[in-house]
Each structure stands twice: as C-alpha cells, then as structure tokens.
Amino acid sequence: MNSQRQKFEQEYRVGKLLEKGSFGTIYWGMRVRDELPVAVKHIPKVKINNWVMHEGERVPMEVCALHKASKIPGCIKILDHFVFDDCCVIIMEKPDPVVDLFDYIDEQRILNETLAREFFIQILETSLQLYDAGIIHRDIKDENILVDLKSHTLKVIDFRTATFLKDDLYYEFSGTRICAPPEWIQLGCYHGKRAAVWSLGVLLYVMLCGEWPFKKDEEIVSADLDLCPRLTNECRDLLKKCLSVQPAERPTIEDILLHPWVTEQKEPLAEGETACRKCIMCKRTAEMK
C-alpha cells in the first residue's frame, strides 16, 4: 500500500475541494507530467460495500464500472485509481466548461422540447452503450449528468451505484429515493432495464417541467401524472409510457428511440402558454398575471 501512496503523490497534485458528500469527497487536481486538470475522488473504505475483481485486482465496483465505461463518449473517463489502507482514490477527467444538468435546468428554468430531446437522446444512447459494456448505472438523474456549455454534449458521472447488468431481479437499491420505480417501493425488487426506463422518464419530466413528477412514495406507486398542457401530444405520450406503474408496460430504450417524439424534429415551443399545477414555468407565469 505504501508504494501505491508514493506513486499517487508523485504523479498527482491535489488542490481545492470541489464537492463533499456522504459517500466521498472530490477535489480539483493536476497530473504532474503534463499539468492535465483532473478530478480526484476520495472514498473511505468503510463506505464501500461492493468489491469485485477487475483485471486481477480487487477494486470497488465503481472503479470497475468506470473502466468498463471508459470508451463510451457519454461517460466520464477514469484515468487512474489507487487503493490504500483506509480509502480508494479515483482519478477522473475534469472537462471544462461544464455544469451539472441540475444547475443548468435551474438556470434555464425549464428546457424547451427541442433541447430536452437533444439531451434525452444522448442519455438514451449512453445507456445502451453501458448495457453493451455489461453495466447499468442505476442513478441516472440531473445531478449525475454534466453539460458541456460549448457543445451541449453530456457526460454521465457518479458510478457509485453502478453494477453488472443482469436479466434477473435486483434486490438492492442505492439510488435516489425520489427516482425509485414503484415496484421497488412496493415489492423491494426490480428488473434493471425496466427501472432504468422509469428513471429516464423522471429525468425527461424534470427537464421539461423543472421539478420532480413525484415526491412521496405514495405518489410514485400511483404514478398519477399531472402533465403540463403546453407539452406536445407526442411528448405527453412518451412520458406516460416511461412512467407506467407496470414495468412490463414501459418501452425499452430501443423502443423509445423509435418513438415519434424522439424521431420527429420540432421547433421550440413558447414557454408558459397555459397554466397547470405541476409545471414550474406555468406556476411562475400564472403568478405574474
């Protein structure tokens, strides 16, 4: 372990704190040999529950998932990792200028359908490429997506809850509760791909309406959608299908990519044309009248 720490200290410099969470801390850093800006994530070992073998080394599942996703354009790139006695350190690329999608939506208030579609298609394609790599993310949400402010390309981050893709049921859920599918709330189990479509529906709703479709467990299990009337019929149809209570009634990601709302290009719509209870933009428009 001492050699690992020495190697880390020789090859990287750690700077200011970027983010501190319950499962780890992220710092700005620099790779010494070429002064490349990097993100340095420290994870205490006591916070790591899932260890796997990757290329002959026992590593956290997060490290394994990042390596498997390393060739996917829509995922953050891992550059290096180190396992010490007390923690694991993950070195990742630090793209710039970027902002997470949560802050981007907060700044924009809502996204028009054209931009939401552009972002949504990128996440759909990235999710499929993760499947091909044998990985499922399990916590796709606005806070775990970076937006390149110049190109509008997206990168999925935070693979803490990622695991190997399987056809069998999953019996553990470590993602964001407000994004959990109704079958997990009711039964304590879920199929990975069907649950992923639910979370994608939640993400699309957040992009278009500026807030969560459901906030409480009882709202999730009933999935009574209050859709803004300014949304196009095709968009409303896709949201209803992705957020179906019955997992078997949800489309696959491949089906979503063939949905008319995804395939038909439309002009941006005027924002806040009519009022509804759920949409944050409509609320603000109504308040101004």
Structural notes for this entry:
With about 290 residues, the protein is α+β, with helices and mostly antiparallel strands. It has two domains: about 90 residues, Phosphorylase Kinase, domain 1, CATH 3.30.200.20; about 190 residues, Transferase(Phosphotransferase) domain 1 (Transferase(Phosphotransferase), domain 1). Helices cover about 35% and strands about 25% of the residues. A five-stranded antiparallel beta sheet has the order 1-2-3-7-6, sandwiched between helices. The chain has a three-stranded antiparallel beta sheet with strand order 8-10-11. A two-stranded antiparallel ribbon has the order 4-5. α4 packs antiparallel against α6 and α6 packs antiparallel against α8.
| Mean pLDDT reading | 91
| CATH level 3 topology of the largest domain | Transferase(Phosphotransferase), domain 1
Tell me the number of helical segments per DSSP (H or I, 4 or more residues long): 11
Q: Mind telling me the CATH class of the largest domain?
A: Mainly Alpha
> CATH superfamily of the largest domain, please?
Transferase(Phosphotransferase) domain 1
Q: Can you count the beta strands? A: 14
Principal-axis shape equals globular
Structural class: alpha+beta
Helix fraction, binned, reads: 25-40%
> What distance lies between the first and last C-alpha atoms, to the nearest angstrom?
65 Å
What would you report as the Rg, rounded to the nearest angstrom?
Answer: 20 Å
Q: Strand-residue fraction?
A: 15-25%
Low-confidence stretches: 268-289
Instruction: Report the CATH architecture of the largest domain.
Output: Orthogonal Bundle
How would you characterize the largest beta sheet? 5 strands, antiparallel
SSE arrangement, N to C = HEEEEEHEEEHHEEEEEHEHHHHHH
Q: What is the topology, as strand order, of the major beta sheet?
A: 1-2-3-7-6
